Amino acid sequence: MYKRALAGYEKALGPDHTSTLNTVNNLGTLYADQGKLDEAKQMYLRSLVSFRRILRDEISPSKATIHGFATALCRSIRIDSVNDSIARSELLELSNHIKKWRQGNTAIVNWLAKALIGVKDDQNAQLAFRYSIRYPNDNNADFGGTLCDGCLYYITISTGRYVCRQCSDIDLCEICMSKHERNTLALARCRDHCFFSVDTTSLEINQPPTGKFEVDFDVWIENVGNQYS
């Protein structure tokens, strides 16, 4: 299915269109789920080469471009977690881009958090998930628009969040995680996997942190870059 969709996008939109590259990412994820890691890596590398070219040429890249790039890089890091030098290089690249693009786009920090889980850096992953939270004016604070893969509702501070340590894009709220543990919620691509529990204690549902939060973020992301340089 993805191969047919990819051929259609390439013909209609061209090889470097965001929709084409997102389909390349999805095909890579399909290969990864099937255990075909070499094929998956080839898809992610193809996507990254194109995204890097677009980002180099565009002064103000769109959110869709930034999101697609961060997605591909995170999924590539998940595969490269067995190769420390490559994973560290990719984490450094992602953290450097976050310094430029985080404003108004917390989803990119969410992908960094997932990448950090992939290299078993749980402490920084917890902080990254905290920094990925967005505070809408009239809604419960959520994680950059992340949906639960069980109930398909937004995951918020009050719902709890659990992130698969092996899949790059499986998230569950607390209720669905409980169902998954009792084998009453089946996830076709995620069986017998361990999950990372995001700590939301001490966070206000609709009260953004004070200005010091932004200062802390700048210091933290700089430290992450230094750690993986």
Structure description:
It is globular, with a radius of gyration of 17 Å. It has helices at residues 2-13, 18-33, 37-57, 63-80, 84-101, 107-118, 122-131, 174-181, 212-227, and strands at residues 142-147, 154-156, 161-164, 171-172, 195-198. The protein is built from 9 helices and 5 strands; from the N terminus they run H-H-H-H-H-H-H-E-E-E-E-H-E-H. Helix 2 packs parallel to helix 4 (63-80), helix 3 runs antiparallel to helix 4 (63-80) and helix 4 (63-80) runs parallel beside helix 6. The N and C termini lie far apart (39 Å). A 3-stranded antiparallel beta sheet has the order 4-3-5. It has a two-stranded antiparallel ribbon with strand order 1-2. It has one domain (60-227). By secondary structure, it is mainly alpha-helical.
How much helix, percentage-wise, in residues?
A: 55-70%
Number of domains: 1
Mass-distribution shape: globular
Mean pLDDT: 84
Structural class: mainly alpha
Helix tally equals 9
Span between N and C termini? 39 Å
Approximate strand percentage = 5-15%
Low-confidence stretches: none
Query: In order across it, which strands form the biggest sheet?
Result: 4-3-5
Radius of gyration from CA coordinates: 17 Å
SSE run: HHHHHHHEEEEHEH
- What is the number of beta strands? 5
Can you summarize the main beta sheet?
3 strands, antiparallel
